[in-house]
Design a protein that fits this description.
two-stranded antiparallel ribbon; alpha+beta; single chain; 4 helices
Length: 209
């Protein structure tokens, strides 16, 4: 404590000046803390969602229509020819049905968010941008999971598995396997679109740290 000499040889204490601490740094990201998403971020997000919507739409149709019937003529015990028919359909596999469902849901979600961005005012987007970002991340995760499940079925159909006694069915139903592979590829590109969308959000957050 400082002391100052005054008249009459009396000492009085003088408090040091109070220095106010610097204001705490707040974290801001587009759409959080009342800040609406930037115009560039909104346009980029709509473009990526539009690309994902188109890709998942085509992927769901290609996978849903994947079917092929193979007919084989064999000789029975009496020596008469018998025609046997076997059909491969995507609906016969729960993993491929899961693939179709997730791609349809992604299509609906992508279109809904695009419409929401276009219909809502910029200020109103600040309150829903963070929930949409979280939903984008969940959508990406579901796309990855359905693509992984469908890819596993595709690999088994192409190569078989001798340990479980599963034959290579793609030898007989090439068209069916080709459709499944095309659908998976399209859905993977849609997944990439959502990966880019999530990464852009992370980069926007990092720049405001």
């Amino acid at each position: 404590m400082d002391y100052q000499l005054k008249a009459g040889s009396e000492f009085s204490s003088v408090d040091p000046p109070v220095v106010a601490p610097p204001p705490a740094r707040r974290l801001h990201i587009d759409g959080v803390d009342g800040l609406p998403p930037s115009r560039a971020m909104g346009i980029t997000g709509n473009v990526l969602r539009g690309v994902a919507a188109v890709l998942t739409f085509v992927a769901a149709i290609v996978m849903g229509t994947a079917a092929q019937t193979k007919r084989v003529v064999v000789i029975d015990d009496s020596g008469s020819p018998v025609t046997l028919a076997g059909t491969a359909k995507s609906h016969y596999s729960s993993a491929l049905v899961y693939f179709i469902v997730i791609n349809v849901l992604t299509l609906v979600y992508s279109l809904a968010t695009i419409i929401l961005y276009q219909a809502s005012k910029k200020a109103a987007m600040a309150g829903i941008y963070l929930p949409l970002t979280i939903t984008d991340l969940l959508t990406m995760i579901f796309l990855v999971s359905c693509n992984g499940a469908a890819s596993a079925i595709s690999v088994v159909a192409e190569n078989g598995n001798r340990h479980f006694g599963w034959d290579k069915i793609c030898v007989s139903v090439r068209q069916y396997c080709a459709q499944v592979a095309v659908a998976i590829s399209l859905s993977m590109f849609a997944t990439v679109a959502y990966v880019i969308l999530v990464l852009l959000t992370i980069i926007a957050l990092h720049k405001r740290l």
